[in-house]
Design a protein that fits this description.
mainly beta; 104 strands; disordered C terminus; about 10% helix; six-stranded antiparallel beta barrel
Length: about 1500
């Protein structure tokens, strides 16, 4: 590797020797620059040494020829032709005599990831002796001249400066620095990664700052140069060794005329060369000559061309001294302004003209002085920023992207350092895709090259305009080159012009959507699962979209759609499970940018269970015997928990709880309707007369069948088993002694159902005893045409066959259905008398036949069995303790019998056992008996004390809880039974005793609850009486006289405690309530009527505030209020009550519970504020009015609409709460009397105090009302300058002389808010005397309460005084006296020399003692004594006079001859100098003191 080295003498000799040749050739080819530096690499140099020798000499000649030489170098023009020849030879010798340099550098390869390698400091591969030379890196570029990047793989050319320490010439060396990536391969951005081969390719211009220009044709004239010179130059150009720069090619745009100003001469610092330049400006901006070798042009107007291609020149002019990006403050810190200018001048010339820019300098000196480093530093900077910006799109329409709308991507084209600040409005987000940032409702910076977009919620409408977006750079910089003539330098300047802003607009979509709220029509709870469609037509045929199903909150929000539809129709497509489809169409007028709300309700699908009752054997609704199928009580029970379909209400009926109960009607059916859907079962509670209790659970699944089935119906057939029992006859013949004889065989008997007998049905045959048929009623009855009783098998009637006794006298009937039968001997054995008919009653269901002994007139004895039955359930009461007396009606006495256990005693009261029956301990004879109950079992009514619940004439079963009916006494008669041998009876299989059984039924004791709900109700309004109206009239008259506004309540509301209608309650079982008959279920557990906490009943109070529930089983319950009733607060107290009978004669236990609810109160408040200051306003009167008629519970209008109810004034805190105890309703509030100084507020506040939330104790409604105050702006100004005047103490006084505002003026207007309308006076209490102002006259002004701003200005005049200096004798004004006005602290306020006229002074302090002092008296006068004076507070001109007396005359010798050492005139000059100095000093002291006073005053005011 080689470098070229030349001595300073050689270079100087070359310049001198080539001067003449330069004049011959340089003027023609002044634009020629060397394309290749003489400091080429060794390889290149060896190939073209001869050619380069010639080019180097010629190039130097060109450079020298186009330079403007200083006077020190001007002699070069006088060299002869022989000297010129010597110059060329010397140059050639200088080039050819190069020797190898002592410092060499090896090419090196490093990995990009090698953090230990730094090219700036690494000396690896550089072979040098640190004691002999210094080696410094001066530049490193890639092979295409681009920037060096330590993190980018590629091949770079590093240039080092070698400075020998023996002070010999410096030189440069170069080497390759190759950076590799992880694969070890060097890449270049320009050549796609191919390794550059610099040793085989020609070197480009990276080593030279000269700009590449296109080749130009060389033209010349024969008189200026030889043809040989032209020929050589053309050959050089063709071989690519020389490039030509012409003015036409430098300028890339049309020119503009500018003004060049040539300033002072600036000499190069001696340490870099003996040369000079001038301080140029172009249009006032610092400019630089670009061709150091030429003469400086004069000032004038020139045409400037824009040069954009020379990037290095742009950098120098921008970052160099005086440029917009001046870096010399830091880089050239310590340098003078001239040094900075010279450094930049050389850099600009080098960038423009190459090495010719170093004219007048030694290269080593430039290196040592840091100029070369400075040039490299400037060249290494980034290109100057550009202000031009443009947007890829300026008018954008937003598009939908999912659930947002966004603009298309926008790219801001421009310099990456230039950015605009985009103000992002509310609800809009700007996304900078290039930077990965986003901003909502704020500001974001978009840089040149960034791509961004805006996004917003789909409901945002309208448009957005960015406004003018100015770039942060703000200016567009351009290089201007002034061509001043062939012999003059080109001038370069970097000029700017304001960059135009960019802007864009966005048109947002006009979208809308619908939010649907789905509720249960009854519970108002939200429903999930409903699907609605949105249609574009009223018939709902054109589906726009299907909404998503409603969620658990009952809400569904549609997708967005275009609001241009204006009207859409919403209709249900799919109902929630358990609900029927709502066919209502909701018409919705849509608005762009809004979510429209639709509230829809659904009705639940109800269930119906139809029960058909049939006889199990007749297989139809046909009863057997005397039994009936109607009247059976059935219960519908929950097989599993029944829940409300709304998903919120929860469990309505717990598992196995009773849902409903009913009675089989006359048509044999029973319907349960309005049922909630679920799994249920039907079970018989009370069988009909003559039938056994059916314990079967008939399961019924009442489940949802879809939205189109409004009512799910299930049919259920239940079969009833009639009670049946056979009877067995024993036919015995009797003798006269009533002893049993032979058993009779062959006797025949027929069985007839009494109720089926013709005369019984037609009413001809009636019971003789008036109650029931006995055997004697049929003694003479003709049975020949009657049909025998029947039984049924599989729906077919089977007549009861004739019963024939066998040889043992026995005959057994088939099992007969429940009923009363008459048995007639139809076949009489021979020689025997036909017996009388007898009655058989089938009352029990038993597989054991009843046994009957049939004989004539034999005394019959029997045991009486009394079975206690529950009249409602038909079950045996499994409780002991029922006691009876048995009255023998025939013998008219009570039966007494003897018991043996536990002790022998006679008893007359017989008690049932735990199985619910009793059997008399001894037999009774045939007779008529009345069974009288003495005591009923617990929970039952004693016979004779019964009451029934009547709904009209219908008796309601005690098992049915109801709000209907009235209890009435319905005592039941005791059981009367006539027992004969014909009476049906049983035979005890053990003892053979006859047992006659009777059932005694008791009603269950029940409870009746009377619930009373009370609360305050509006009944009366005060203020309507004649007396009240007279008082109101008197109050108005008094107000008119006094000018004051009366406040108070005009209509008072009175409330009385009365019943509350519409309150809803629920009754729950506090403890488990069991069936009182002691019945047990299949598992042996007591039958439960209500489990603990079961809902028993719901009540709603009537217009009297009461509710009744009847037929509650005895037990303990609690009440819960669920709806308070209109206008009342919910009472959350749970009240218990217990239904317990006092004794068994109490059929109905009456209990009463009273609830009292607090009335929901209404509070209406107003807060009054100053709209400007926020001050709370007192004494503002507001009126409260009725916005609608106020009516009583009975509908009577108590207060008409728009009636004034109350007036009240705000307190000192600006608050008021109306005192009226308002009922619910609608009102309005308006301002009646405003505060003086404020504009009226016409706003009417509509107050909706409607009842809505029963859990809210008080509806609190408040409103903040603002009033705009009057505004008075007062300015205090200098009457002369008009500027705001500080320090004046001012007052505003009202017409009564009261000071309403007082303040000290400042530099700002004084604003008074809230002055009442009227006339005021602005009075200056104290003027700024110290500053020389006098008090101004009062200013009267008017304030009006009409919204206008009252502006008042008061102007202050200066104090004025005339100072006269007069002769004490003549009184004439004197000239030449030096006077001062002095304050007590010695400050000189004014100083002057009299001119024979009064001296006017303005702005002297007022009301302060001042001193007029004579400093120098006029010639011939004595200095007068000080005169003190005080200026008064007046705008008139005040006068002060000082009188001087003449100096007594002295005899003096007059001569004009000068005298040695004479100092007569000297002292005068000394005194004059001292006086002048004193004057200056005094003025200075005064000014400084005054300045200091002003500063202190400002500081005081700030504090």
């Amino acid at each position: 590797m080689e470098a070229v080295k030349r001595t300073r003498q050689e270079v100087k000799k070359e310049k001198i020797d080539m001067q003449d040749k330069t004049y011959r050739r340089g003027n023609i080819f002044c634009g020629i620059l060397l394309k290749k530096s003489i400091y080429n690499r060794k390889e290149k140099h060896m190939k073209v040494r001869k050619l380069k020798t010639r080019i180097a000499a010629f190039g130097l000649a060109v450079l020298m020829g186009i330079s403007t030489l200083s006077s020190a170098n001007a002699f070069a023009a006088e060299q002869t032709g022989s000297e010129q020849q010597t110059e060329v030879q010397a140059s050639e010798q200088a080039v050819t005599s190069q020797k190898d340099t002592s410092v060499t550098a090896d090419d090196i390869t490093k990995a990009v990831s090698d953090d230990t390698f730094a090219v700036e400091t690494s000396m690896e591969g550089i072979h040098y002796d640190a004691e002999k030379e210094d080696v410094t890196l001066v530049s490193i570029k890639d092979e295409n001249g681009g920037e060096y990047h330590s993190d980018k793989a590629g091949t770079y050319i590093a240039t080092y400066m070698v400075v020998p320490k023996d002070k010999s010439d410096s030189y440069t060396i170069t080497r390759k620095v190759t950076l590799t990536d992880t694969e070890g391969q060097a890449h270049s951005e320009e050549n796609g990664g191919e390794k550059q081969k610099s040793d085989t390719e020609s070197e480009d211009d990276s080593d030279s700052p000269v700009q590449n220009y296109t080749d130009v044709e060389i033209e010349t004239s024969e008189e200026d140069a030889s043809a040989q010179a032209i020929k050589e130059l053309k050959e050089d150009i063709e071989e690519g060794n020389v490039m030509v720069l012409s003015a036409a090619e430098r300028a890339t745009s049309s020119g503009s005329t500018v003004t060049l100003t040539k300033g002072r001469t600036i000499y190069y610092p001696s340490y870099i060369g003996n040369y000079l330049t001038c301080l140029f400006t172009v249009n006032g901006k610092i400019a630089y000559c670009l061709q150091s070798q030429k003469a400086s042009p004069p000032s004038g107007s020139y045409v400037a061309q824009v040069l954009d291609s020379n990037k290095n020149l742009q950098k120098v002019l921008y970052y160099g001294y005086g440029g917009a990006g001046d870096l010399t403050g830091s880089y050239l810190s310590g340098k003078t302004e001239d040094e900075k200018y010279v450094y930049t001048h050389i850099a600009a010339s080098y960038a423009y003209a190459g090495e010719a820019g170093f004219t007048g300098c030694n290269y080593n000196d430039l290196v040592n002085a840091g100029v070369i480093a400075y040039i490299n530093y400037l060249f290494g900077q980034e290109e100057p920023p550009k202000g031009e910006l443009s947007l890829s799109s300026t008018k954008l329409n937003a598009v939908r992207d999912g659930n947002i709308q966004k603009t298309p991507n926008i790219t801001l084209s421009g310099d990456h350092r230039n950015y605009v600040t985009l103000s992002v409005p509310e609800n809009v987000t700007a996304h900078n895709l290039s930077k990965g940032t986003s901003v909502t409702n704020g500001k974001i910076q978009i840089y040149g090259g960034d791509t961004f977009y805006l996004s917003a919620d789909l409901l945002l409408t309208g448009s957005y305009a960015s406004g003018n977006l100015y770039g942060s750079v703000g200016k567009t910089w351009r290089t201007l080159v002034l061509t001043t003539g062939d012999s003059k330098q080109d001038i370069g300047v970097f000029e700017s012009e304001t960059a135009a802003p960019v802007s864009f607009s966005v048109q947002w979509l006009n979208m809308t959507r619908i939010e649907l709220m789905k509720k249960d029509v009854n519970t108002q709870n939200p429903l999930s699962g409903a699907v609605y469609g949105i249609y574009t037509d009223k018939k709902c045929e054109n589906l726009l979209m299907t909404m998503s199903a409603t969620g658990t909150d009952g809400k569904a929000v549609s997708d967005y759609f275009d609001s241009a539809l204006k009207t859409v129709y919403v209709k249900e497509i799919t109902a929630p499970t358990g609900y029927k489809l709502n066919t209502e169409v909701y018409k919705v007028a849509v608005t762009a940018g809004k979510t429209m709300t639709v509230t829809a309700t659904d009705e639940r699908v109800t269930g119906k269970v139809k029960i058909a009752k049939i006889d199990k054997e007749t297989l139809a609704f046909k009863a057997q015997g005397d039994s009936v199928l109607r009247g059976a009580v059935y219960g519908l029970y929950a097989k599993e928990d029944i829940v409300h379909p709304d998903g919120t209400t929860g469990v309505l009926y717990k598992q196995d709880s009773l849902i409903a109960q009913g009675v089989i009607g006359d048509d044999g059916t029973l319907e349960f309707s309005e049922l909630y859907l679920g799994e249920m079962y039907v079970k018989e509670i009370t069988p009909p007369e003559g039938y056994t209790l059916d314990t079967t659970k008939y399961e019924v699944s009442v489940t949802y069948e879809g939205q189109d089935v409004a009512e799910v119906t299930r049919d259920l057939t239940v079969k009833e088993q009639v009670k049946k029992q056979a009877f067995q006859l024993i036919k015995i013949s009797e003798d006269g002694e009533q002893t049993e004889t032979d058993l009779v065989a062959g006797a025949g008997f027929k069985v007839y159902l009494i109720s089926d007998l013709t005369q019984v049905k037609n009413g001809k045959l009636k019971p003789a005893n008036g109650e029931s048929y006995t055997a004697s009623d049929f003694k003479n009855y003709d049975f020949s045409k009657e049909q025998v009783a029947v039984t049924y098998e599989n729906g077919t009637a089977v007549p009861v066959p004739e019963l024939i006794t066998d040889t043992k006298g026995y005959a057994v009937s088939p099992e007969l259905p429940y009923g009363s039968y008459v048995v007639v001997e139809s076949t009489t054995p021979e020689n025997l008398k036909t017996i009388d008919p007898f009655v058989v009653n089938v009352e029990n269901d038993s597989r054991e036949p009843m046994q009957w002994r049939v004989f004539d007139d034999r005394p019959f004895e029997f045991l009486l069995k009394i079975v206690k039955k529950d009249a409602q359930t038909g079950n045996t009461v499994l409780k002991a303790g029922a006691s009876y007396k048995i009255y023998d009606v025939t013998n008219k006495k009570y039966v007494e019998q003897v018991v043996q256990y536990p002790k022998k005693e006679k008893i007359s009261v017989f008690e049932t056992n735990e199985e619910g029956y009793l059997i008399t301990p001894q037999k009774l004879k045939c007779s008529t008996y009345r069974i009288e109950e003495v005591k009923a079992p617990e929970g039952f009514v004693r016979q004779g004390s019964e009451e029934s619940l009547y709904d009209g004439t219908t008796i309601i079963s005690p098992l049915e809880q109801t709000t209907k009916g009235t209890y009435k006494e319905n005592p039941q008669s005791g059981i009367v039974i006539t027992v004969s041998s014909n009476t049906a009876h049983q035979i005890d299989p053990d003892t053979g005793a006859a047992i006659v059984e009777v059932e005694q039924k008791n009603d269950e004791q029940v409870g009746s609850l009377l619930l009373t709900k009370k609360g305050e109700q509006l009944t009366e309004v005060t203020g309507d009486s004649v007396l009240a109206k007279v008082k109101a009239l008197v109050s108005k008259v008094r107000n008119a006289v006094s000018g004051k506004e009366e406040t108070g309540i005009y209509k008072g509301f009175k409330y009385e405690e009365t019943g509350v209608e519409g309150a809803e309650f629920e009754i729950y079982a506090k403890d488990t309530i069991y069936s009182p008959d002691g019945a047990k279920d299949e598992a042996g557990n007591p039958v439960v009527r209500y489990e603990k906490d079961d809902l028993v009943a719901k009540l709603t109070t009537d217009e009297n505030g009461t509710a009744v529930i009847n037929n509650l089983p005895l037990g303990t319950y609690y009440l819960k209020e669920v709806v308070a009733g209109e206008n009342f607060v919910l009472n959350t107290e749970q009240k218990e009550f217990t239904l317990t009978a006092e004794d068994d004669t109490q059929a109905v236990v009456y209990e009463g519970v009273t609830y009292k609810n607090e009335r929901q109160k209404v509070s209406v408040s107003v807060e009054k504020k100053d709209a400007v200051t926020g001050e709370k306003l007192e004494s503002v009167i507001f009126g409260l009015y009725a916005a609608e008629d106020i009516v009583s519970n009975q509908g009577e209008v108590l207060v008409e609409k728009d009636t004034l109810l109350e007036k009240k004034a705000t307190n000192k805190n600006g608050n008021l709460t109306f005192d009226s105890d308002l009922p619910h309703g609608k009102y309005y509030v308006k301002e009646e009397v405003r505060k003086a100084g404020y504009l009226p507020n016409e706003e009417v506040w509509k107050v909706d105090a409607s009842y809505e939330n029963q859990n809210l104790e008080k509806i609190v409604l408040s409103k903040e009302v603002e009033n705009q105050p009057t505004e008075t702006r007062i300015t205090k100004t200098d009457a002369t300058t008009g500027k705001e005047l500080e320090g004046a103490k001012l007052q505003v006084i009202d017409k009564d002389g009261n000071v309403v505002e007082e303040w000290t003026s400042t530099k700002e207007d004084h604003v008074i808010y809230g002055l009442p309308e009227g006339t005021y006076t602005l009075h200056e209490e104290l003027a700024p005397y110290e500053d020389g102002y006098v008090s101004a006259s009062d200013v009267t002004f008017e304030v009006k309460e009409d919204g206008s701003v009252t502006k008042v200005e008061m102007k202050d005049e200066y104090s004025k005084v005339e100072i006269s200096k007069t002769d004490i004798s003549t009184g004439k004004e004197l000239e030449g006296a030096k006077l001062q006005i002095i304050r007590k602290d010695g400050t000189v306020l004014e100083e002057w020399i009299t001119d024979g006229k009064p001296h006017s002074v303005a702005k002297l302090p007022v009301n302060e003692e001042l001193t007029l002092r004579e400093i120098t008296a006029p010639d011939g006068y004595e200095i007068a004594e000080d005169v003190t004076f005080t200026l008064k507070d007046t705008m008139e001109v005040q006068k002060v006079e000082m009188k001087d007396a003449r100096t007594p005359e002295k005899t003096t010798e007059k001569t004009n001859a000068p005298k040695t050492g004479d100092n007569q005139k000297v002292w005068a000059f000394v005194l004059l100098a001292l006086a002048s100095a004193g004057t200056v000093t005094g003025v200075t002291v005064y000014r400084r003191k005054k300045s200091r006073m002003t500063e202190n005053k400002e500081e005081t005011e700030e504090k």
